[in-house]
Write a structure and sequence with these properties.
Largest sheet: 5 strands, mixed
Number of helices: 14
Structural class: mainly alpha
Strand order of the largest sheet: 2-1-3-4-5
Low-confidence stretches: none
Radius of gyration: 29 Å
Order of helices and strands: HHEHEHEHEHEHHHHHHHH
Mean pLDDT: 76
Shape: elongated
Number of strands: 5
Strand content: 5-15%
Distance between the termini: 32 Å
Amino acid sequence: MKNSILTIMKKEFVRFFTDRRMVLTTVIMPGLMIYLLYSFMGSGLSSQFETTEDFLAQVGAVNLPESMQQIEKDSAALEFTEVSENEVEQLLEDLKSQETAFDLLAVFPEDFDAQVLSYDVTMGGTAPAVKLYYNSTDNDSQSSYNMMQEILDTYESALANKFDVNPGEETYDMATEEDMSAQIFSMMVPMLLLIFLFSGCMAVAPESIAGEKERGTIATLLVTPMKRSHLAIGKIISLSAIAILSGFSSFLGMMLSLPKMMGDVEGMSADIYNMTDYIMLLLVVLSTVLVIITLVSIISAFARNVKEATGWVTPVMIISMLLGVTSMIPSLCMTEPVWYLIPLYNSVQSMNGIFSMNPDMVNIVVTIAANVCFAGIGVFVLAKMFDNEKVMFSK
């Protein structure tokens, strides 16, 4: 009995470890790809809250006091520009739209230094107040606010709390609810949507192609008087339709549940997007599915069975997730059209632009055209694979 068990174990180990494909997809690739994915995601998330080492906060200041001018001289990361009170209203609008030259607007009371010196904490009167206006959806603006807040807190402590920062219930964060929603959607949805689309393709393509190879039924199709290109096109179109239904089902559930997942944040809603946005998103999704289903179909045709096809497709899916993370990293969000010739990356960036309410029509058109071209090339490759008996009848 012991020898029989050892014999079976030895047989299975030999079968597994002598199969390079299985060792690669089962042992090496999962750990490697998960490590890369989470490392990349961590870098992406941390970059949302970090600034470059040479970052210089541009602060517009009303009634800039001499004390702050001295602080500016001592700081290498802060630069004040004096503005008049008449410009405040326009600068606040610019902060909302993120089209201002300033990262932060600081409004000091007139004769701030004199008021601070004359203020007696024990008298219980109203302390001089500094108002800091910023936009939390802009990383530079948020960083500038944190920096200025820390400087003022330190200065205030040194003066025994002789003034206040952002007193009362006035709104100092110029980010609108639409901006907050767009920022969250643009960071999360492209990657999640790409995963859902890939999952839908993985659920149908390996079984349709590698499964038929494994069962031997594809041989019947190959001997019929049908062009192999027609077989490839028929497979891809039908599989794409099924994958789209699966992807949209997941997408709809995600869009409806995301506000709940975010803790019922006030104003968190997909209602900020109009019909044009959804049409652009639909076209990008359709072209993306064509690319994914073509890629998965080629891998499935190369594999010997469904299990092997799934093993090979999984690392490719993780790579697509890495591309999805690029929507979280501003430095990897390119705007030049040439970058939108890269499949999957172009889809993520196009979706990021749509969800951030800043779509670029040229890049979206380039994305759709490039995806359709890549799908066409994939159909040609798949047809050639159907013509190759060594590929289609490999065991």
